[in-house]
């Protein structure tokens, strides 16, 4: 178990060093705050779909297809469980803050933090399961997440079905089922773009960390509760639930990595779009990313020892 911990911790430290580079870049004004949306859009619309498609670009295996379906169901159950518990445990007289707290507790940064770790620790098979988790994440964030932050009338079926995560999974499944062989030059392009999925998201997280000017926000016990739920309680519940359901091996570890990731970066985007507390959202994303450097190795090591 100690060996597993150091393997995971090493990978997390690599990500953390990349985050520090992002932190320095923004502190030195080498990239302005206005550049963040452009970088984010590039990752969201180009890099992430390429990573997902590359994970599915593999020899057809009926067992992998079955495992994909199981992962899909597990991800749904984890999201539903997190939603129910967040509504039971998180309350605030300020509705705007309550919405941000609940959204932050439910949705993990399974793309930015999850995929790089899955690739480093588990290889393409881990990303295969991670991509499935991202598909479920996108479905819930554009349905429940939108309803939570903006109201049910804001839900758009079009955005549920047509977003980069879903499109990447659909195209990946087409490659997986049809076994189409891409020309080597195109496969190489996908590979190079996919390689950007580790450094660029870390730069963005570094930007959020650069925004931390004081830890005084930790005096807010609801914020601390949200961080504990997101980084400790919900991941542990997910890991042990999966274990008792009989989930083992790469699938268990991959799902655990997605589930124990810090608060999703799109929390800030949703808060901005629907007029909720953006300052609170930024604080939670920043602090959860910082503390996940400690919590993710522990949670992932636990999953690896149970796998």
Extract low-pLDDT stretches: none
Q: What's the gyration radius in Å?
A: 18 Å
Q: Into how many domains do the coordinates divide?
A: 1
Structure class: mainly alpha
Strand residue content: under 5%
| CATH fold naming | Na+/H+ antiporter like fold
> End-to-end distance, in Å?
11 Å
CATH architecture: Up-down Bundle
What is the CATH class designation? Mainly Alpha
Please, what is the average pLDDT?
Answer: 87
Q: From N to C, what is the helix and strand string?
A: HHHHHHHHHHHHHH
Summarize it.
This protein has 14 helices and no strands. By secondary structure, the protein is mainly alpha-helical.
Architecture overview:
This protein has 307 residues and is mainly α. It has one domain (2-306): Na+/H+ antiporter like fold (Up-down Bundle), CATH 1.20.1530. Helices cover 79% and strands 0% of the residues. The chain has helices at 2-27, 35-56, 62-89, 95-106, 110-122, 124-150, 157-161, 164-178, 184-194, 199-210, 221-244, 249-259, 266-274, 278-306. α2 (35-56) packs parallel to α8 (164-178) and α12 runs antiparallel to α14. The chain is globular, with a radius of gyration of 18 Å. The model has no long low-confidence stretch (mean pLDDT 87).
């Amino acid at each position: 178990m100690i060996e597993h911990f150091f393997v995971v911790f090493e990978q997390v430290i690599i990500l953390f060093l990349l985050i520090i580079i992002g932190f320095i870049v923004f502190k030195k004004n080498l990239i302005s705050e206005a550049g963040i949306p452009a970088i984010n859009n590039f990752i969201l619309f180009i890099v992430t779909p390429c990573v997902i498609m590359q994970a599915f670009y593999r020899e057809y295996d009926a067992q992998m297809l079955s495992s994909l379906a199981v992962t899909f169901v597990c991800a749904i159950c984890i999201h539903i469980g997190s939603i129910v518990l967040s509504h039971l445990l998180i309350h605030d007289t300020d509705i705007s803050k309550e919405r941000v707290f609940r959204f932050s507790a439910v949705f993990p940064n399974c793309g930015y933090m999850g995929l790089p770790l899955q690739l480093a620790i588990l290889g393409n098979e881990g990303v295969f399961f991670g991509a499935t988790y991202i598909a479920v994440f996108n479905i819930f964030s554009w349905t429940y997440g939108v309803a939570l932050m903006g109201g049910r009338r804001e839900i758009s079926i079009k955005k549920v079905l047509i977003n980069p995560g879903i499109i990447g999974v659909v195209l990946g499944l087409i490659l997986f089922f049809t076994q189409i062989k891409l020309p080597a030059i195109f496969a190489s392009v996908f590979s190079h773009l996919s390689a950007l999925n580790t450094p660029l998201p870390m730069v963005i997280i570094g930007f959020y960390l650069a925004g931390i000017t004081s830890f005084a926000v930790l005096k807010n016990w609801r914020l601390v509760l949200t961080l504990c739920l997101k980084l400790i309680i919900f991941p542990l519940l997910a890991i042990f639930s999966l274990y008792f359901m009989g989930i083992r091996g790469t699938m268990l570890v991959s799902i655990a990595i997605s589930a124990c990731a810090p608060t999703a970066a799109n929390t800030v985007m949703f808060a901005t779009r629907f007029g909720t507390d953006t300052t609170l959202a930024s604080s939670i994303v920043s602090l959860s990313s910082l503390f996940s450097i400690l919590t993710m190795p522990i949670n992932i090591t636990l999953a690896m020892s149970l796998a």
